[in-house]
Design a protein that fits this description.
heterotrimer; A alpha/beta; B mainly beta; C alpha+beta; A: FAD/NAD(P)-binding domain; FAD/NAD(P)-binding domain; Arc Repressor Mutant, subunit A; 19 helices; 37% helix; B: mainly beta; Ubiquitin-like (UB roll); 8 strands; globular
């Protein structure tokens, strides 16, 4: 059993920044990260890839190198390739590296597990060749692989960034099929005065759009009824736009309509979560430092609510300050003094968020899929299955899971829980926030039985309740 | 096999000297030369491997979807263990197979 | 009167009783709790299990065997009406032993029960080699198994879903998301729920699982039930590995290997623990070494509803005649009896099964 003052789950911007800040205050820090190299998804593999592909990926990406470099600190133990699969309220974490299980215990725990793509169930989305836009970007960052013959579909600034990166890589997408419409932009306009404080982010968006226009990438706005055609592989995307049905042949479809906090760990700890109506997602309840409803557990970064990489790093530092104070390494005065500029910058970085949330809402057609559309990719459960089971008295996601198997597969509901909540909410005329999500339990990621059995070596013997 | 996925380094657009030498692996018995240390799912995509598996539920074909270890669609089998191809790096000699596919045989039914 | 019978509890026990009553023409109302309630019906192991039941009480062995024998017709009836496949298999089942002495000790207990049952208790002792012929996947450390002809398993979630659907289709009413907080008797029963609603019924069956502990006294029952936790692991879907179930391992119809089980006295905590998971994982690997490399996709804890002696309770209230308590920790095994035999007992008919031994005043 490894012991540390602080265990950080995830080496993205929040986790890396928190680890540095905490180590700087004298805390021993153990960073557990699934990936072979630090960076999270936003700075995926940045230490290797910045020099190779920095031109394509842009300065927002290459800027992550500083955070990765700062992980090299005598008080920080960074374990790459470490999959945390059980987290207990006493700060114990069971994890596996290359199939070998181990345990660690931290006096404090920081969950910095980032975001997941919001599931976008449309007909054909399980076909080979259909990926998330984030996946295409990860391929580019980590592997220098660009998806060709592609159409991007959905909504959100990430679509523009990925499209522009594909243009720079010499493989522009065939089209951008955007589900947000003019009314969304008009509604978002009332957030513009506030958003101007975050003008840099808006300016970047404008530059991306000019880049796409310059490359001649066709854009379709206000698209609906999106479907992917194909028998064994994607062969085309079809959609309604401007009163006509369009069909664009392609072998890659990249879907995206926002990202949502990855709450698997915080859910498994049964922490309090609330519904963020603006971002249409659950997030853990936390205070201004990121402290959750369990006082020894903190959350920072997109896993605490979507704010982007800059906000994530600042939130990570704030959490580390609170943890350093908790553990008696800094006094309240020093904590607050150090926090003040971080809070100012965080507020600035968040200024454009309400505008973006409103301008790029989730695709309605994917929130209420047709009956025949699969919503649980693992167990191949359709939206219609959920609706039929609702008629048998399924009030909530746990019963929906028991009746339909949605959420029982290896992804453990990461790509269906939101859809189940949306469908049940629509049937009951309420908000997904009132429906909730199914219970999350260990193993947070499937591990072999041998790995689970191996924990016996790390434990003091059967628990008091065991027979 | 035809693939829509292009390795930038191979095209010379950003020559990538630091990334590994090519090593032999096999996928369902097919011999492949992939870059050692590179992301397995990405390498298989560039090599034109698709699908990665057929689901145990209906036998439907699947390939990588999220590339970040969350969706479990890129599952392959290495050394008798189901693995996420997007979460492991290429090593020489890897024998990669598709996991058992469905539709599931009941196993316990008469 | 809205209903002839109100059933408090929409789990497998309540719905089995409700199904039995609706198919005899009664107007039935089922009041079911919330999505987050403790639900043994969603967490159980799915066994239709005869061996080891009633070693200290042959009447329980008889009742269990009666239900197991009814299961084939019960499942066929449900499937014919609904089209649902319950994945019922009753080809016998094992209790695996790593220790030869423990196997012999348990075999002696089975033999005593067999004598008490007049020689009718179809079990066999299988040594390692005999077992290996049946189940080639067993490991070298397995000493053998007790095999009982009448054991089997079913998909318990398919059963729950099918009962929920069939009770409705046959005219029953199921109200979900309500918690019954009080029951009063005055020319029938009035059941009040936490959200301020009230329901009327001629008679009441309390099949509320652990909820009986708080509601029972309102109906004049002692309701001495307590939670006992069991933890379960289930693997990814696998090709056929185990042809019959055991008390701790079974391959479910979808292909996953389900692994249990623990008996823990931890109160109302249905979580999982690293220590128990590790122990049951190690035991499963000892029995089926191939499982070492199988991925566990889920684990859960669920709370059994235990009476002091572990046997069911069937009791009509002395204080409120017409109110009945039905509880057990083997709701799947007993589902067939609860649907097909218990209604006659509830109706007070002459051909009712003799359930005297399961009265709750045995605990007084």
């Amino acid at each position: 059993m490894t012991e540390a003052d602080l265990i950080v789950l995830g080496a993205g911007p929040a986790g890396m920044a928190a680890a540095c800040q905490a180590a700087g205050a004298g805390l021993s820090v153990l960073v557990l990260d699934e990936q072979p190299r630090a960076g999270g998804q936003i700075y995926r593999d940045v230490a290797r890839a910045a020099a190779l592909r920095g031109r394509i990926l842009g300065s927002d990406y290459t800027g992550g190198q500083a955070l990765v470099a700062a992980l090299d600190h005598p008080l920080i133990a960074h374990l790459p390739g470490a999959v945390a699969w059980r987290v207990d309220p006493d700060g114990t974490v069971a994890f596996s590296r290359a199939g070998v299980a181990g345990m660690a215990r931290g006096r404090r725990l920081l969950v910095a597990t980032g975001a997941l793509e919001r599931p976008m169930p449309v007909p054909g989305w399980t076909l080979p060749g259909v990926m998330t836009a984030g996946a295409a970007q990860i391929l580019l960052k980590a592997s220098g692989v660009v998806a060709g013959d592609a159409v991007l579909a959905g909504s959100g600034p990430l679509l523009y960034l990925v499209a522009a990166q594909m243009v720079r890589a010499g493989t522009p997408p065939r089209a951008l099929v955007e589900t947000q419409g003019t009314t969304d932009l008009l509604a978002a306009a009332r957030h513009l005065p506030g958003a101007l404080a975050g003008w840099r982010m808006l300016a970047k968006g404008g530059a991306l759009l000019r880049e796409l226009a310059g490359a001649g990438v066709p854009r379709f706005r206000g698209a609906s009824a999106i479907a992917v055609e194909g028998a064994d592989h994607a062969t085309a995307i079809t959609f309604d736009c401007g009163g006509t049905r369009h069909r664009i042949p392609c072998s890659t479809v990249l879907l995206h309509h926002g990202v949502v906090p990855n709450t698997q760990v915080t859910r498994s700890l049964a922490l309090a979560h609330d519904w963020d109506a603006a971002q249409r997602a659950f997030r853990p309840v936390r205070d201004g430092w990121g402290r959750t409803s369990l006082s020894t557990v903190f959350v920072a970064g997109d896993g605490a609510g979507i704010g982007g990489a800059g906000v994530a790093a600042l939130s990570g530092r704030l959490a580390a300050l609170a943890i350093a104070h908790d553990l008696g390494r800094i006094c309240a005065g020093d904590r607050d003094l150090a926090a003040r500029p971080l809070r100012v910058r965080r507020a600035l970085d968040l200024a454009a968020r309400p505008f973006l949330d409103r301008a790029f809402p989730p695709f309605r057609g994917a929130l209420a899929p047709d009956d025949a559309t699969i919503i649980c990719r693992c167990e191949e459960v359709t939206a219609g299955d959920i609706r039929r089971h609702a008629a048998l008295g399924t009030l909530g996601p746990n019963q929906a899971k028991a009746f339909s198997r949605a959420g029982m597969g290896p992804c453990q509901g990461r790509f269906c829980a939101a859809s189940v909540a949306e469908i049940l909410a629509a049937l009951q005329g309420t908000s997904p926030g009132r429906i909730g999500t199914h219970r999350v339990r260990a193993p947070l990621k499937p591990v072999t039985l041998a790995e689970i059995a191996a924990l016996a070596d790390d434990l003091p013997g059967p628990g008091p309740g065991a027979s | 096999m035809k693939t829509a996925f292009r390795d930038l380094a191979a095209g010379g657009a950003s020559a990538d000297a630091s990334e590994g030498a090519r090593v032999p692996v096999s996928f369902e018995g097919r011999a492949l030369l992939l870059r050692a240390g590179a992301n397995l799912a990405a390498e298989l995509l560039v090599a034109g491997v698709m699908p990665f598996r057929h689901t145990p539920v209906s036998g439907a074909p699947r390939g990588p979807f999220c590339m970040m270890g969350a969706c479990y669609d890129c599952l392959v089998r290495i050394g008798g263990v189901t693995q996420q191809a997007c979460m492991i790096e290429v090593a020489g000699g890897m024998e990669i197979a598709m996991p058992p596919a469905g539709p599931a045989d009941g196993g316990t039914d008469d | 009167m809205e209903a002839d019978w109100a059933i408090v509890g929409g789990g497998v026990v309540g719905l089995s009783v409700a199904y039995g009553l609706v198919r005899r023409g009664h107007r039935v109302l089922v009041l079911d709790g919330s999505d987050a309630d403790f639900r043994a019906s969603r967490g159980n192991f799915g066994l239709i299990w005869v061996q080891s039941k009633g070693l200290a009480e042959p009447a329980y062995a008889r009742w269990t065997r009666a239900s197991a024998a009814l299961w084939k017709d019960f499942a066929a009836e449900l499937s014919a009406a609904s089209g649902a496949d319950l994945s019922l298999s009753q080809r016998g089942g094992y209790e695996f032993f790593l220790d030869e002495g423990a196997l012999e000790l348990q075999a002696r207990r089975y033999d005593r029960l067999k004598q008490e049952l007049g020689g009718d208790y179809p079990y066999q002792v299988l040594g390692h080699n005999a077992l290996k012929r049946e189940e080639p996947a067993i490991g070298p450390r397995v000493a053998g198994a007790l095999f009982h002809d009448e054991d089997g398993h079913v998909n318990p979630l398919a059963l729950l879903r099918t009962l929920a659907s069939e009770v409705r289709r046959c005219g029953g009413t199921v109200v979900n998301g309500v918690t019954v907080t009080d029951v009063a008797q005055s020319g029938g029963f009035t059941l009040r729920t936490a959200d301020g609603r009230s329901f009327r019924a001629g008679r009441v069956v309390m099949a509320a699982g652990l909820g009986a502990a708080t509601l029972g006294p309102r109906l004049g029952f002692r309701a001495p039930v307590r939670p006992q936790r069991g933890q379960v692991l289930i693997t990814e879907r696998m090709p056929p590995l185990l042809s019959r179930p055991s008390g701790t391992l079974r391959q479910v119809n979808e292909g996953g290997i389900q692994i249990g089980a623990s008996n823990e006295e931890v109160g109302l905590d249905d979580g999982t623990s690293a220590s128990v998971s590790a122990r049951i994982a190690a035991e499963a690997i000892a029995v089926l070494p191939d499982l070492a490399r199988a991925r566990v996709v889920r684990s859960w804890g669920a709370l059994r509803i235990m009476s002091p002696d572990g046997l069911p309770i069937y009791q009509q209230s002395a204080a409120m005649p017409g109110a009945f308590m039905v509880t057990c920790h083997s709701g799947i095994t007993l589902a067939a009896a609860h649907a097909l035999r218990l209604p006659a007992w509830l109706e007070g008919r002459a051909d009712a099964p003799d359930l005297e031994v399961f009265r709750e005043d045995r605990f007084s």
